[in-house]
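Lecture 7 notes: from sequence to structure.
We start with the chain below.
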Amino acid sequence: MNAPDAGHARRGRVLMLASAVFFIANVLLVRAIGARYALDAWVISSTRFLIGLAIVFLPLMPGGAVNLRSLLRSPLVIARGVIGGTAVAIFYATIPDLGAGRATFINNTYILWGALMAALFLRERVQARMVGAMLVGLVGVGLLTGVSAHGWAFSRADALAILGSVFSAIVVVIIRRLREHETIATIFGSQCAWGLVATAVPTVTGWATPGAVAVVLLVVSGVLAAAGQVFMTAGFQRLPVAEGSLLQMLVPVGIAAGGVALFDERYATPELAGALLIIGSCVLGAWTRPRIAAVLPKDFQR
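Predicted structure tokens for the same chain:
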């Protein structure tokens, strides 16, 4: 990797780390909102998508304005929104049956599916060390989220969660592809618009009018989520799918740390070991210096 490529990758890592910070802050705030005001998770999700839609039309969005034609007519842009919204819905749907820990662990397997899809469809080379880093990171997520406490019996909910993780992998590959010719506003806008469609029915069903303070906090959480998504989308322009996804695994570590600092949570030795494994996997992944696809296959070019 030459010097310009190295600088490009460094900027991508900074963007991805910034994205993780915003996502961590969003989740912690959402947790506080849910605990204090008992708002339905679907209401919070729909608010997030509404705030995101408002943000994508701001003239300050990096990379250019939203392309309404692509938003409504581009198959890849629509697929990014529909599949991404479905993945979010599946994640929420599996939590009651699997628990947050097991659902989170299965959802994070998207980094493996995403690396495989990127290798097949974007011709991104994945080194053996990167594969090892991803596997170590997944073990860390499993320990951190306490998945072992739920056992390993396979159920329909597990199958649904795996489907959701595959959908998440498809989304990150599509984002990597779309950054070649679409603006961040258009890509993010597709998630918000079609995600809102996916969450509309459960939102209406569980609707409860929030108070003024809750509304303000919901807006702040929506802005944090939007910032996380924007930085992540920009990061995938500069990083291979495998490395970018791996850095996103720092999110559960940050959430755990925030839980200790803000919600008086306590973690046992296996969970602390899991956090260290995730951090170690990210460091190992950064050292592999994977190459991003310089030219996309003809089937993925406009």
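Points to note: The first helix runs from residue 3 to 37. The two ends are 27 Å apart (CA to CA).
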